[in-house]
């Protein structure tokens, strides 16, 4: 018999997943409580585990737990322990390689100079090389996480001054990282030189906040100050805030998938409201891939804003033809392919009354393995749809991500081995259309993708990675088997 949790996990495995959210606050008595709220807003960036480290200026308290933020950090006993005027926190998504308490962040260590906690979103593509060197020098690792590597680089730095230790450590890192760190005197936030993963600065009645997304500021009523620049390191102390730039200036290559799927629709990422972009994506899609149909139906929830945009641009009614059950849990067992086929009904059901006899445009954010799409199409057909036309709010995903996103290996991506016609046959739709890469760039407000110097990371669509993949270049082993990736 198939376990219902496995079925849910199967559906989760058919999407790209952002692996982490980070949050930090400096300068409030209730720092841990605010961090809990911030993490709650960032729960979509990771549901396997959460952690908070607080500090009262000398003593650190660490709470790291498997489960949702609300499972642990609403308990009075836990919150009572997290004393201090500063705190950092982390939400983590599971991958095949690295679940378990030892990989839950923030990491904390007592160094010669005092305590240091760090939480990270992204993936260090040379972490294995760095780890090997550090091990040879005597470092002992307690996790399989690339984040612990950052902590060891800071710990073993020859620099005397704290900021310079962070600078020296960060300069050795390749790949994607947005981290927040806490010492007894400082909170430090840093974005990699290309700004692949987001990180914003906020102000809450004089207390500084660093967070993966603006929705984590909104939840507590904090003021958005600005996005950190690519390659910027922000140092917050009792005296205020200063910015360092450890890396040579480079053009931003923010992950464009943040707009397609990862970020919450109410967040603003680098000046663009995510909901607006997703609607615009739907409009572009309607122009690029028009179809004769009766209604537009989103695959909820991630396909909804694009479906609204599609319907508006196409002049078709928008209908909730598929209903999602929001009260289903999630676990992290890797399912088999056969199980994957059965997973979707737990979460989605067709609204027969809306669908029967109609020609449907089904809008989803992306197609990864295709098995979820296949099942959803079947549900809609079983409910009496006359025709099913799938429109996808991103280009075909052809490559794995090595920058802190949980993705299947490239061979398992449908678009890596099939033409669009073959994919249409596989998911059994009457027609299939994807947004073009230029359409995606137009939707985020760019005139076009600049081939010589693209404005975003779009490697999972174009296979053009903005950095060297280093540890991952010579291996055919999936990323998650090499190392627990994604700042776990
Ligand atoms: Fe984002 Fe680039 Fe990863 Fe794709 S490859 S998910 S665009 S960071």
Structure characteristics:
binds iron/sulfur cluster, Rossmann fold, Glutamine Phosphoribosylpyrophosphate, subunit 1, domain 1, 19 helices, alpha+beta, 25 strands, 2 domains, disordered N terminus, 29% helix, 488 residues, globular
Question: Would you mind describing this structure in some detail?
Answer:
The protein has 488 residues and is an alpha+beta fold. The protein has 2 domains: 17-253, 4-Layer Sandwich (Glutamine Phosphoribosylpyrophosphate, subunit 1, domain 1), CATH 3.60.20; 273-456, 3-Layer(aba) Sandwich (Rossmann fold). It contains 19 helices and 25 strands. It has a 7-stranded antiparallel β-sheet. The protein has a 6-stranded antiparallel β-sheet with strand order 6-7-8-9-13-14, with helices on one face. Helix 14 links the parallel strand 21 (359-364) and strand 22. The radius of gyration is 22 Å and the shape is globular. The relative contact order is 0.15. Mean pLDDT is 90; it is low at 1-7, 330-335 and 475-488. It binds iron/sulfur cluster. Iron/sulfur cluster (SF4) binds at residues 16, 196, 255-257, 401, 403, 405, 457-460.
